[in-house]
What we know:
With 206 residues, the protein is an all-alpha fold.
Amino acid sequence: xxxxxxxxxxxxxxxxxxxxxxxxxxxxxxxxxxxxxxxxxxxxxxxxxxxxxxxxxxxxxxxxxxxxxxxxxxxxxxxxxxxxxxxxxxxxxxxxxxxxxxxxxxxxxxxxxxxxxxxxxxxxxxxxxxxxxxxxxxxxxxxxxxxxxxxxxxxxxxxxxxxxxxxxxxxxxxxxxxxxxxxxxxxxxxxxxxxxxxxxxxxxxx
Length: 206
């Protein structure tokens, strides 16, 4: 089943979901590693940037891929039905579920775009990578005359994104586990492997 149905996520939605999740699981620690390597270079006054450039290439490329996949996922979702939530959920649970998804989608765009803006505003000549391409266009003006303000502004947004994202993602994971362990419905299972069994509740159309 390629497309979604009112009761189950299709092949495309499921695979985009897990692929993006795996890429984010790599991207966040990679970003911390990149910053640690940069700080060490500054502290030791080293001019060997080979490791930093390699890590940056992977981090930048992965971020652009997440942005591309998030765009594809949102486009696909807009053209497909959204499987219904279980009818027994309380009103606040439905609101929380919807808000969590809205924030997750917003962060999938804000996180890579703020990183791109941070790199664009950086006053130095550090490259912006996408695979072998080392001259990705800037999306905001580069800082001039030694001004760090634009770079620091976007860097703060980028850092805030992962902090908020950690909370929202935690809520999302806990909600999925609650459905699977406590409510014992098929909310998690239908995202993991689709609807191979009859639904545990009557779905309603989008």
